[in-house]
């Protein structure tokens, strides 16, 4: 029996594409609210028309199936409108992190081959006028009233009200979206996600969160991340409603939950300690929030949040490349464990040769899905990295875990050279590339160190060129000119040399073990 049997109205395998999901929702839930962001809201029936009209507008702009449409915007209804329009047409959406600076934006646009960029003027106005000259961007549609001026690109105000496009031949395997995730030994990679992957995201996330048609799902997470996009499909497939808030506010979080009558919420690891650090207020007990998805929240904070607010957290394992593979409902939670393997997936804890390890022994988590297209299709335009990640027909997560005799899994650490800070995946390679542009730096290594907020902090160790002089604060300021705020190192150590192997490779594990030492520069306390 299929793992989607918990849905009120599951779809046949051939129909697990987003246009069919929208039509299925309209058939059964019609005038019920599906989506709200700011002052804009849609019913299930209206969502079909919005997707078809947005697709018609894209087609009129010479965007076709397989073409990439980049989006640079905060949380606005237009973002979801573009995502659904791309899905209806068969174009591929490329949402971009709003914290990126011009060099990274240019890289994402070049790497994806996007022809159209839809951007919020408040974000675009900080970019240099020639930033699109080396990309394939032909058109720029602006969200907002500020006038813009860029070279080598046609500019127009956003308009999603095209003639409705008839239903296209879009299948479960067709690409829906490219989501950029951190590089480990190179630049960030674009994860190519098919339509059916988000069907299964909605199924498994909804099952662990116990979503029902009476639920209101409220998220303040950004619509350029899997989490918030996945939330939409949880609502769509279960007959629930999604409300997207502009941003996370620690002081306003509980009032937002009360105002929206949220029953399910979404937080990242760092958000919970931030919330618990706020002074207690009556609002923490006046909401209707029964559960929240909280990946990466330390076990000790699950109970602390429940005791203070009455909200139970659901944890588990899922990546941009995979799905919600390991988890459980709030009632099934075992402290310190990610949960059990979900129906429809297989998992192996393996050594460096992909050989299975016995229970209780740490190894890399390998995954695969029973259902077709439940995982990403690979990395866009990176066949060699795709083969490496999916070698031996298993997706290699790069995470070390332990499987216990009772079938539960525990997270140990990451094998990959990536850093997660404030919910963002940071490529150490990209930070190092910026450091190496500093005229005084000979070599650098960037790596994670523990954070008080349950995730990572970014630390850099650098060796200066012979005779060069540089102050830590000046190096950090140099990084801030080219990196998004969340990627800028908090800690900096200037060393005489870096630990290396016999063949000269930097041993980052030794730097991580050394960690923050007395005298290490800390930009938060400088």
Question: Would you give an account of this structure?
Answer:
The structure is a single chain. By secondary structure, this protein is an alpha/beta fold. Among the domains are: 44-170, Rossmann fold (3-Layer(aba) Sandwich); 210-314, 3-Layer(aba) Sandwich (Rossmann fold), CATH 3.40.50; 418-525, GMP Synthetase, Chain A, domain 3 (2-Layer Sandwich), CATH 3.30.300.30. The strands form six sheets. Strands 2-1-11-10-12-13-14 form a seven-stranded mixed sheet. Strands 15-16-17-22-21-19-18 form a seven-stranded antiparallel sheet, with no helix packed on it. The model has no long low-confidence stretch (mean pLDDT 93).
List the defining traits of the structure above.
single chain, 526 residues, alpha/beta, Rossmann fold, GMP Synthetase, Chain A, domain 3, 7-stranded mixed sheet, 28 strands
In a nutshell, what does this entry contain?
By secondary structure, the protein is of the alpha/beta class. It is built from 14 helices and 28 strands.
């Amino acid at each position: 029996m299929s793992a989607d049997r918990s849905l009120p109205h599951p779809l046949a395998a051939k129909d697990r594409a987003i246009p069919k999901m929208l039509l299925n929702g309209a058939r059964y839930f019609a005038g019920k609210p599906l989506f709200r962001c700011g002052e804009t809201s849609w019913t299930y029936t209206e969502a079909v028309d919005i997707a078809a009209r947005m697709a018609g507008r894209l087609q009129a702009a010479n965007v076709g199936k397989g073409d990439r449409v980049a989006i640079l915007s905060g949380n606005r209804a237009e973002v979801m409108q573009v995502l659904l329009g791309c899905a209806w047409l068969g174009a591929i959406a490329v949402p971009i992190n709003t914290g990126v600076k011009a060099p990274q934006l240019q890289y994402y646009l070049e790497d994806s081959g996007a022809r159209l960029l839809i951007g919020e003027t408040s974000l675009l106005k900080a970019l240099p006028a020639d930033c699109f000259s080396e990309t394939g961007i032909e058109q720029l549609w602006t969200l907002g009233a500020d006038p813009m001026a860029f070279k080598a690109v046609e500019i127009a105000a956003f308009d999603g009200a095209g003639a409705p496009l008839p239903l296209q031949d879009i299948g479960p395997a067709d690409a829906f979206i490219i989501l950029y995730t951190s590089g480990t030994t190179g630049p960030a990679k674009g994860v190519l996600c098919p339509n059916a992957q988000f069907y299964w995201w909605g199924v498994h996330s909804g099952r662990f969160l116990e979503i029902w048609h009476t639920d209101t799902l409220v998220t303040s997470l950004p619509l350029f991340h899997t989490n918030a996009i996945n939330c939409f499909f949880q609502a769509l497939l279960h007959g629930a409603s999604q409300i997207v808030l502009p941003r996370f506010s620690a002081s306003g979080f509980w009032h937002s939950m009360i105002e929206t009558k949220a029953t399910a919420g979404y937080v990242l690891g760092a958000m919970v300690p931030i919330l618990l650090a706020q002074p207690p207020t009556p609002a923490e007990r006046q909401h209707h929030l029964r559960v929240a998805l909280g990946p990466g929240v330390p076990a000790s904070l699950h109970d602390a949040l429940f005791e203070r607010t009455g909200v139970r957290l659901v944890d588990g394992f899922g990546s941009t490349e995979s799905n919600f593979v390991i988890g459980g409902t709030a009632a099934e939670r075992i402290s310190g464990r990610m949960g059990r393997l979900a129906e429809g997936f297989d998992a192996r804890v393996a050594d460096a040769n992909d050989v299975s390890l016995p229970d209780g022994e740490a190894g890399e988590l390998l995954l695969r899905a029973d259902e077709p297209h439940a995982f990403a299709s690979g990395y866009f335009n990176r066949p060699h990295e795709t083969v490496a990640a999916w070698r031996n027909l298993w997706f290699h997560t790069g995470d070390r875990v332990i499987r216990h005799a009772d079938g539960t899994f525990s997270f140990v650490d990451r094998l990959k050279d990536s850093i997660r800070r404030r919910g963002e995946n940071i490529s150490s390679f990209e930070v190092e590339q910026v450091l190496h542009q500093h005229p005084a730096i000979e070599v650098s290594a960037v790596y994670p160190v523990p954070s008080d907020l349950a995730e990572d902090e970014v630390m850099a160790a650098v060796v200066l060129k012979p005779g060069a002089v540089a102050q830590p604060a000046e190096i950090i300021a140099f990084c801030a000119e080219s990196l998004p705020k969340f990627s800028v190192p908090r800690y900096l150590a200037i060393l005489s040399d870096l630990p290396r192997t016999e063949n000269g490779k930097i041993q980052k594990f030794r730097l991580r073990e050394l960690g923050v030492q007395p005298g290490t520069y800390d930009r938060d306390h400088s």
